[in-house]
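[scheduler] slot 2 assigned
[scheduler] job type: sequence-to-structure, two independent chains
[scheduler] chain ordering preserved from manifest
[runner] begin chain α
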Amino acid sequence: MLLGFFDDSGKESDLSNKIVCAAGYIAASTNIWSGFHELWSNYLLTYGLDELHMKEMMCSESRMKPFCDWDWQKKKAVLEDFSAAIKISRIVGFGVAVDAEAWRELPKELTKVEGTAQEFCFMRLIKMILDRIRKSAPNEKLSIMFDCDEGFTPARFKRYLAIRKRRQDDAKYLISFGVGEPQAYFPLQAADFLAWESRTQLLRQIKGLDSRPEFQHMMMVLPGFFPDYTGEFWDREQIEKVIMPMTDSLAV
């Protein structure tokens, strides 16, 4: 069974937010996740953490211990260590991001069908993963988990059921949907890490800035290690080219 763990970064409802992202990791073997769990647990213990939570860690005004006492060099070292745990484990990453400003401008007849930016990211994420499974592991089944988010979970589960109902071929792969507590499920912390870094990377690209060293470290090719990450970014041009033309057909 393939086990996948995912998280979001950025809210469409926040009008100041420019990017919505959903990302996470899957692996085909419980041994792989066991190895990841051991590494991640060791770094949590090393740094005195019960959870790696990027929003709290990276916020300059965070009051959460021990993040509020760390300078940037300490945070950088921590991120590189947790990034190394992901690399060594060889878990496979997926991510989808959407231009939130362009999505908020879509006509209501479209968003009624496609949903919020978060829902669209979820649907594209599942499609991307299923396409990969059909090519690489056609006999595997997929169990997915997100964190416990009261705002997003009901809509996600409704979309999950719709995918299973709409296509029998998809339903045979999608065998379970769940939510979990990141402090108990360490892969959800890795998903939070990836979603945060992916969204930050895109925001920097929009501003014409270079990638953060931490993102470069996460994606760096090393001897014997090749990052396995598949992603999509639905920018304004892509949304106007692919999504907007659906308006006329929906109006008929």
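[runner] end chain α
[runner] begin chain β
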Amino acid sequence: MSQISTEAVAGISVKTGAVAERLVSLDAFRGATMALMVLVNNPGGPSYWPLQHSAWNGWTPTDVVFPSFLWIVGVAMTLSLSRRLAAGVSRGRLFGHAFRRAAILFACGLATYAYPGLSFSTQRILGVLQRIAICYLIAAAIYLTTRLRGQIIWIVSLLAGYWLMMTLIPVPGYGPGHLDVERNLAHYVDRVVLGSHNYLPTKTWDPEGIVSTVPAIATVLLGIMAGRLLGLKRTLAERTTWLFLAGNLLIAAGLICNFWLPINKLLWTSSFSLFMAGLDFVIFAIFLWLVDGLGYKRVAKPLVILGMNAITIYLASEFGAEALGAIHWSSGGQVVSLRGWLIDNLFTPLASPLNASLLWAIAFTLAMYLLAYGMYRRRWFVRF
């Protein structure tokens, strides 16, 4: 292994050189999740239904993306922290590292919504990276202070507690148990606490809001359970089987709970947490068997490249999309953005509106892959 040098850049450690051996299938799964996230976040217009979020109850393939990323955080955390604990690093020091990483992620999340026009009166406080930061920090604290039994109790308590809050706590003016957009407890808390700092398109509530973060923490903890299965001293085939079986049990649990608390991403319901974690167990088991079991590492290499700098690529995609929209000029009495000009001139003439939109999203995703590939070739791996 070549020497590793470290350069501090804005609180982020950029490591140049070879990296420690990694679970290739986990990077591939992370990369696939990131590729789909970039694809669905950057349409050029109307999208096919699999690339849209469910309007309310139910789910689409797009709704799998964010819970998968949180679940992967739990898996990776277990593998990393268990290895460092075995090496003799103190729990206090590990928590300090987790706090620092969470703070950097939260700050990066704030920056994505501040750019390009910062407005302190309407600055979105919560969001995708902020939720990852909060869930990561709390899950790390739980992992470092409990054993398996305690972690299972936390999962059950978070999911059951959220269920009880959403169904029993009365919302002023509406009463308890309402799960529609306007009358549910989670959105009421967002309206009162966040006010004008909610998600701009919704204005009065945030899809990554305060109360709905509770079951999202359980999603990370379910990832920790998967990490524990990976750490068993069993053959790869046995561990893959256990992951597959656990995933199907969680899917069944989510579908059963759906009768009482519908699967809903925007509320991140307890049934949604169980169902999506189950899908992650199953999908990752397939990745594990194909990539690390059967050795299809060359086929998975593009996904691995994306997965090794996932957060960096996410930030680049968010800032890049904002920049393409912010660069604009006047033409024929109308304001034209660079993004709109590229879509209208390069993709709209080639296909129907749906397919032109898809072509733009694919092209944007490929551009992000080229960035990831360039970083990989230079052995730049950004660690938060």
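[runner] end chain β
[qc] chain β: The two ends are 22 Å apart (CA to CA).
[scheduler] slot 2 released
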